[in-house]
Amino acid sequence: MVTHEWRESALPLQAxxxxxxxxxTNDWHASQRPVEKLHxxxxxxxxxxxxGLLADDEVEGLLAAAAHRPAEAEAALVRARRLREAIYRxxxxxxxxxxxxxxxxxxxxxAIARSYASQRLAQSAQSFAWTWDHDPADLDRILWPVxxxxxxxxxxDQLERVGECADDRGCGWLFLDTSRNxxxxxxxxxxxxxxxxxxxxxxxxxxxxxxx
Length: 212
Description:
48% of the residues lie in helices and 12% in strands. By secondary structure, it is α+β, with helices and mostly antiparallel strands.
């Protein structure tokens, strides 16, 4: 068994929460042509490493397990995508002030149950902390912190800060709005926000050029 302390706040997350970061592994989620980032189980492992969930030796262990059990790895990838889509639809609906789909909540609850079953309290010198304690070759292990993150966010006072990129092309990127006045609208100013700014500038120039 391998034990890992659970500290979501220590992860390098662009979206602000791990579950939202995971939902964003499908680019242009709200468009007619989303762009899948998780094509193979190795992509899921690479994502887990990129967000700080997996150390190098854990990556090697999971890739080796996937190579020896390719059918199980493919099934784990399918489960990961299904969980991701459930998480996206839940938080997208909530960001829009709508009720999340019941089927998606049921799917998330099932993942949360497995997540909590894989956690233990571990004692350090002066405190206790949640840890992950399970088979290091468990191909679903990346999903447990994701499900826990979704549960924590849904039951927190920050839920109302979840937003979705307002780009009209269907970016669909989810984020936790930490701006002081809760005014964030875009995935980032370097992408959709910059496009919207340029479009407003163009429209102002065009309006100014039109005869009165």
